[in-house]
Input
Amino acid sequence: PGNLFVLYASRHDDSGELIRLAQPVLDRLRDISGETANLGVPRGDAVVHLAQADSRYLLGTQDWTQVQVPSHLSALGKVLFAFGAIPVPSEPLSGRSSGVVIGPRELARDLRQVRRLGYAVTLDELEVGLTGLAAPVLHGGRAVAALGISGPTARLKSRVDQVGRLLVEQSDALSALLRRRSHSE
Output
């Protein structure tokens, strides 16, 4: 789908409640990590960025809520692939910053690691100097969204495990909040 359609879909669906519940989590992620925090949801075979808490640093990442990124180059996308929220492509995919082609076998290996760790990492894949991490938000046994943190590789590379564990902790908290909310309705 085109950028305009994705933007329209992200603004005209029932995601308002998810955004409302996730915003304090995004703010907490930003405050703890210092980096930009995002909420993304699956839409067909794409990831739509619904909400963001901006980095406290001058050198941070852009506003992702109006940007469509190839899912295989995005930590949010890799999480949604790994947890079955968007279909995994079967054809080879090109890497944007490296130009290296990612085959189905390599992608499958990456997704197994994402499931094992509970979070995804993209290190200089979309763009040299940009690192992203993401963890799934689960509801009813399936991934309904992903929480992510992105920022300069220079600040994140040495903290990947720490930030990954933080994302898993906060995505688990948001998942529990969604479960409690649905049980109370």
About this structure: The longest strand covers residues 142-152. The longest helix spans residues 160-184. Residues 1 and 46 are 8 Å apart (CA to CA). Strands lie at 36-43, 46-53, 93-94, 101-102, 120-123, 130-139, 142-152.
